[in-house]
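Q: I'm building a small set of examples for a reading group on sequence design. Run inverse folding on the following structure and report the sequence directly after it, with nothing in between.
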C-alpha cells in the first residue's frame, strides 16, 4: 500500500517535509529525552539524511516504512515523530526471511513539553489499528528499555504481552557507545489485537 496520513481525536500524523528539520533535530538531538532509545541523532548531517529518507517513503510504492510527523490538529504545532515498519520487503532479499512477512514494529518520540498528555497512547492505538487493518500485520513487536516506564505503560495498556528481555548495544548517531541496555520485548498477534479492541 502507499503512504497514508492518519488522524486521531487530537492529532494529525502527516508526511515529513524539509521544513520539519529544526523541529525533528531538536527532538532527536535531545539526549536526555531520548536516553532510553537507540535513536539519538546528534549530528545535523545524519539528521538531514534520516529526514530525506523519511520524506522519500511517501513516494515509495509499496510503502514498508511509514514515517509521520505528529502535530496538534488544533494548532498545527509539531509535537513529535511516529513510525510503523513492516518487514515484508526482507523476503525480497532472501526467501529465508519470509517468516518476517507480516511482522510490524512501531516507535513514538514526543517532545518533553507535550509528554504526559495522553498523546503517546493515542498515537499507539491509532498506529496499531492501522498496522492490523491496513498494513497486513500478522504480529506486532514492541521493544523498550526496561527503565522506560512511560513506554511500558503504553505497551501494556494496549494489550501487548511481555515475551522476553535481551541486551542490546547502545548507539548514538548509529555508532555503538560500548554500553548495553536491557530491552523488554512485547508481542501482539492479530487475535490479541482483536481481543483488546
Ligand atoms: C514514551 C513516550 C512516547 C510516552 O509519551 P506520552 O505522550 O508522554 O505518554 P502518555 O501521556 O500517553 O502516558 C502513558 C502513561 O505513561 C505515564 N508516563 C508518561 N511519562 C512518564 C514518565 N516520564 N515517567 C513515568 N510515567 C510516565 C503516564 O502517566 C501514563 O500512565 P497511565 O498508564 O497511568 O495513564 C514519551 O515519553 C517519549 O517520547 N519519550 C522519549 C522517547 C522514547 O523513549 N520513546 C519510546 C521509544 S521505545
Amino acid at each position: 500500500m502507499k503512504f497514508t496520513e492518519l488522524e486521531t481525536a487530537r492529532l494529525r500524523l502527516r508526511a515529513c517535509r524539509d521544513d520539519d528539520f529544526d523541529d525533528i533535530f531538536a527532538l532527536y538531538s535531545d539526549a536526555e529525552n531520548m536516553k532510553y532509545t537507540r535513536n539519538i541523532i546528534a549530528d545535523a548531517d545524519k539528521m538531514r539524511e534520516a529526514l530525506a529518507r523519511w520524506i522519500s517513503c511517501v513516494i515509495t510504492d509499496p510503502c514498508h516504512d511509514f514515517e509521520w510527523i505528529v502535530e496538534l490538529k488544533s494548532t498545527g504545532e509539531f509535537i513529535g515523530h511516529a513510525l510503523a515498519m513492516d518487514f515484508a520487503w526482507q523476503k525480497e532479499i532472501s526467501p529465508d526471511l519470509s517468516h518476517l512477512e507480516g511482522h510490524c514494529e512501531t516507535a513514538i518520540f514526543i517532545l518533553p513539553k507535550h509528554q504526559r498528555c495522553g498523546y503517546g497512547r493515542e498515537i499507539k492505538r491509532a498506529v496499531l489499528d492501522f498496522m492490523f487493518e491496513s498494513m497486513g500485520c500478522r504480529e506486532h513487536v514492541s521493544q523498550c528499555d526496561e527503565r522506560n516506564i512511560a513506554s511500558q505503560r503504553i505497551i501494556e495498556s494496549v494489550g501487548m504481552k511481555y515475551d522476553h528481555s535481551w541486551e542490546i548495544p547502545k548507539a548514538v548517531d548509529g555508532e555503538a557507545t560500548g554500553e548495553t541496555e536491557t530491552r523488554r520485548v512485547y508481542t501482539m498477534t492479530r487475535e490479541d489485537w482483536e481481543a483488546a479492541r
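The chain has six helices and eight strands.
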